[in-house]
Amino acid sequence: DAMVIQNPRYQVTQFGKPVTLSCSQTLNHNVMYWYQQKSSQAPKLLFHYYDKDFNNEADTPDNFQSRRPNTSFCFLDIRSPGLGDAAMYLCATSRDGRGANEQFFGPGTRLTVL
Amino acid sequence: DAKTTQPPSMDCAEGRAANLPCNHSTISGNEYVYWYRQIHSQGPQYIIHGLKNNETNEMASLIITEDRKSSTLILPHATLRDTAVYYCIEGSGNTGKLIFGQGTTLQVKP
User: Which strands make up the sheet holding B45-50, listed edge to edge?
Assistant: First the structure.
């Protein structure tokens, strides 16, 4: 029944070592989102894909990149993780990016940077 | 920046109705009011949304004022499992983007 799947659930990386988080969906939704949620804070949108069209938020650091090779999969790449990048990373999907569309969230990947 | 204002925390007795207020005084005509909740260590979960009219589903009711500047989420019979952070969000009708505010931490007590 899992609809938005994130792997791994917990990821540990070293300072400066590139890391990739993955997200897959079985909903065949057009839009996929990546959020960052730091401890005791609200989720913050990093970027989203509308189909293959990439949309970056203005304040998302260049250190964060994303790939969407097909409808089902989306990846978050952190090129050189810093201690401040430790957070929960949430993936979400929606059927369409326009009008009223609920977003379906995955369980998140908690990233620890040593 | 988030454009909604919510009280940081609320308590509710189990079995009673929980009424969570939200101010969105700058909402524009094509923006929806969405409510999501996030139970500890889980991803946010959609609850309900509305544009102008009041809405009800199996989880909750949403009451939107006539001027659309505020709304109230009602959980009719709160249970301990409803303890969570509740986010009220203005969602763009053009892009579908959600900008989360700080939300209300609802504590349901026995």
Answer: B9-13, B104-109, B84-92, B31-38, B45-50
CB B54 within 8 A of CB B47: no
| Count of alpha carbons within 13 angstroms of residue A111, beta-carbon side | 29
CA distance B69 to chain A (A): 18
Counting one residue from chain A and one from chain B, the pairs whose CB atoms sit within 8 A come to: 57
Q: Do B43 and A45 touch (CB under 8 A)?
A: no
Would you state the structure tokens that stand for residue A93, as one six-digit string? 């999907």
pLDDT at A1: 66
Residues 6+ apart with CB under 8 A from A6: A21, A22, A23, A89, A90, A91, A106, A107, A108, A109
**What is the tens place of the pLDDT at every residue in B13-56?**
999 999 999 999 888 888 899 999 999 889 999 999 999 999 99
- Give the closest-approach CA distance of B59 to chain A in angstroms: 14
